[in-house]
Amino acid sequence: MRGERGVAVEHSPLTRWVLTYAPEVEKECRRRQRPVGRSWRLEETSVKIKGKWAYLSRAVDKEGSTLID
Question: Looking at residue 62, what is its pLDDT?
Answer without folding.
Answer: 81
